[in-house]
Amino acid sequence: MTTLTQADWEQRAQALKIEGRAFINGEYTDAASGATFDCISPVDGRFLAKVASSDAADALRAVESARAAFDSGVWSRLAPTKRKAVMIRFAALLDENKEELALLETLDMGKPISDAYGIDIPGSARALSWSGEAIDKLYDEVAATPHDQLGLVTREPIGVVAAIVPWNFPLMMACWKLGPALSSGNSVVLKPSEKSPLTAIRIAQLAIEAGIPAGVLNVLPGYGHSVGKALALHMDVDTVVFTGSTKIAKQLLVYSGESNMKRVWLEAGGKSPNIVFADAPDLKAAAESAAGAIAFNQGEVCTAGSRLLVERSIKDKFLPMVIEALKVWKPGNPLDPATNVGALVDTQQMNTVLSYIEAGHTDGAKLVVGGKRILQETGGTYVEPTIFDGVTNAMKIAQEEIFGPVLSVLTFDTAEEAVQIANDTPYGLAAAVWTSDLSKAHLTARALRAGSVWVNQYDGGDMTAPFGGFKQSGNGRDKSLHAFDKYTELKATWIKL
């Protein structure tokens, strides 16, 4: 928790020098075209910076830089212990610059400064250091061979990685990918969202300070349809890793097929069910968790608990508890350390969320809390945390990812019905189960088609647990040792002795 006041953060914001250029081959540089776009804060509409609008020409420069660095071996063939030391130093530099990075994150994306300072930046540093620490502990294999044969199974860095990351956790999602990608010896071209590019641009310089050689990490701010597409189609990019919408994830698979069959690893959308059985061990805790699961980070979370499935026998008792718990989640100025709900990332996203709220009305759901834009006088993009009751799983608000603080409440009578409703979605990213029955918890968790299942909590786990989805929520895993599978190739070498 930060000890700085809102006035302190405002003072720092006024003095902040913001870098908006791309970073290629160890240097900040304008886009080749000279084009820029305005970076506007959702906090209050203030202008932050002009940011380079990279395109295909910049993608070409960055990939050439990344490939040259990789082929030189300056990083790719460096001893794992030495790469580890650099990655740990990189993580330490994030921590040393925590105030600046948290402020950039809040101004750029609208999240509360307490979350940026206390969760996002430490989590980002942890992702880098954890992966760095792991790299000299990943062993290769010797196959079971006859006495006159030797079979080696070795991991090698895959080459040039294009990492395309989202706007909701800009730095943390980048570091979930940079950690294992860089630790494995790859070169990376990082493409942050045009909605929140500032921390990615800033850490490029910190990477150089840490000792990562020029060309190994390049950062290209810009739009998906220009520089993102160029990277996905580039014949010398070996892997694309992506976190974002299912729609764009599918397009990246097409681009892979149209180019060099590059590996594509995707963490896409979610419509996560939060299942509360009548025998939940602590209904008050479940209600508080349900409120946080939809209000945290303004609901702009791929694992947001956006579908609350409540056993019918306790619905009339439990829903008022959720409504009461949601009262503590109040939108306010993100630079106030007391604020726990900030601004939506931009006007476009705010309008998208408001359109889903209107769809809830149209489809016949009952609005019980929220549902409006507020704090318009600030110039920011704020929407009240919202609850719809009487939702059926066929409604638009129950099927589509809203990416805002909008909760749909559904009811069920049996565990089998809960699982059927929970799985009746194209997504399969996360789910939660609340019950005192150990067998029911295990059987329900096993039946849920989701990459993460939490029992008697919401959003558990740390760097030791893999993260990713089933179905149209994607493939591959971030975090844990499993993440290294995305950034390495397995080679079998068979030797006759």
Question: Any overview of this molecule?
Answer:
There is one protein chain. This protein has 15 helices and 21 strands. It has helices spanning 6-15, 56-72, 80-96, 98-109, 113-134, 170-183, 198-210, 224-233, 246-258, 283-295, 312-326, 347-362, 396-399, 415-423, 438-447, and strands at residues 22-24, 27-29, 36-40, 47-52, 141-142, 149-157, 160-164, 187-191, 217-219, 239-243, 263-267, 273-276, 307-311, 366-369, 373-374, 382-383, 386-389, 406-412, 430-434, 452-455, 488-496. The protein has 2 domains: 6-268 and 477-494, Aldehyde Dehydrogenase, Chain A, domain 1 (3-Layer(aba) Sandwich); 273-450, 3-Layer(aba) Sandwich (Aldehyde Dehydrogenase, Chain A, domain 2). The protein has a 7-stranded mixed sheet with strand order 14-17-18-13-12-19-20, with helices on both faces. It has a 5-stranded parallel sheet with strand order 9-8-7-10-11, with helices on both faces. Strands 5-6-21 form a 3-stranded antiparallel sheet, with no helix packed on it. The longest helix is centred in the first third of the chain and has 22 residues, at 113-134. α5 (113-134) runs parallel beside α6 (170-183) and α10 (283-295) packs across α11. It is globular. It is α/β, with parallel strands linked by helices and 497 residues long. It is 39% helix and 20% strand.
Rg on CA atoms, Å:
23 Å
Strand order of the largest sheet: 14-17-18-13-12-19-20
| Helical content (DSSP H or I, runs of 4+) | 25-40%
Look at the structure and name the CATH superfamily of the largest domain: Aldehyde Dehydrogenase, Chain A, domain 1
Low-confidence stretches: none
| CATH level-two architecture of the largest domain | 3-Layer(aba) Sandwich
Number of helices: 15
Give the end-to-end Cα distance, rounded to a whole number of Å: 61 Å
Described by strand count, sense and barrel closure, the largest sheet is: 7 strands, mixed
